[in-house]
Write a structure and sequence with these properties.
The chain has a domain of 149 residues: OB fold (Dihydrolipoamide Acetyltransferase, E2P) (Beta Barrel), CATH 2.40.50. The protein is globular and about 50 Å long. The strands form two sheets. Strands 1, 2, 3, 6, 7 and 8 form a six-stranded antiparallel beta sheet that branches. A two-stranded parallel sheet has the order 4-5. It has seven helices and eight strands. β2 and β3 form a beta hairpin.
């Protein structure tokens, strides 16, 4: 943990924007995959070609990843960014997404910043982005699957998003039926585990909005916070606290 704690603190300080978003209000619901797909201004498939590693960044403005856009699943490819204000992951943090995970965000979203803000060099990811004051920023809010690795063209996450975009293009009254029909079709392939994963995710979309966040993800109402405190310092403190709690849970 000697490496993990200072790295988390530095990461939270450097990533002021995602860290500032890490105080979801009581009742906050993580967007479903359909909601994330519907809400993003741009869904971009892109390869990480360079940037600045978290350990080499000089400050909040020093983090950057360089992108080679591959395709825009939603939005205009011509407007796609060639860089984003997040960092290159190094060491143990350079971990691609689990290709069979369709529910939770990448593990790095849960270590203090509420969004993933480090990605591996050379990886290919599906980015969900919103346009804000002439900048592209993560879509979906805290704990969304805004940046997940999809290393192959048949990655389940890529297949799911493409299907949800097709459903979103239908009249609203036809969407539930389209989801159900596709889910039934996938259930007819019981020997295909990926088909079952996709069917499970479709069932989650049909079930509607996610439940509100569990208590452990919400700010502690008994913990006094200085309204004038620097958001990055606050985020760093929370990141170190989260790391310590994670370490204790492993003991």
């Amino acid at each position: 943990m000697r490496f993990l704690l200072p790295t988390l603190a530095a990461l939270a300080c450097l990533a002021a924007q995602p860290a500032a978003a890490c105080s979801p209000v009581p009742g906050y619901r993580v967007p479903t995959n359909m909601e994330l797909t519907a809400g993003a201004d741009l869904i971009l498939l892109a390869t990480v070609t360079g940037g600045v590693a978290i350990d080499d960044a000089d400050g909040p403005d020093g983090v950057r990843i360089d992108l080679r856009p591959v395709a825009a699943l939603k939005g205009d490819l011509a407007s796609a960014p060639t860089s984003l204000d997040i960092a290159l992951a190094t060491g143990r943090f350079a971990l691609p997404s689990n290709p069979y995970e369709l529910v939770d965000a990448h593990p790095l979203a849960y270590i203090g910043g509420c969004t993933r803000y480090m990605v591996p060099l050379g990886s290919r990811l599906l980015f969900f982005l919103d346009r804000h004051e002439q900048r592209w920023i993560p879509a979906g809010g805290p704990f969304s699957r805004w940046a997940e690795d999809v290393l192959t063209d048949d990655a389940p996450w890529l297949a799911a998003v493409k299907f949800y975009l097709e459903v979103q293009a239908l009249p609203e009254g036809e969407r539930s039926a389209a989801l159900s029909a596709r889910g039934d079709e996938l259930r007819k392939q019981p020997l295909d585990p990926v088909a079952q994963l996709l069917a499970d995710d479709i069932d989650r979309q049909l079930a509607g909005p996610n439940e509100p966040l569990r208590r452990e993800f919400l700010p502690d109402p008994d913990e006094d916070e200085d309204e004038d405190a620097d958001p990055a310092e606050t985020a760093a403190r929370k990141a170190v606290k989260a790391a310590k709690e994670a370490a204790r849970s492993r003991d």
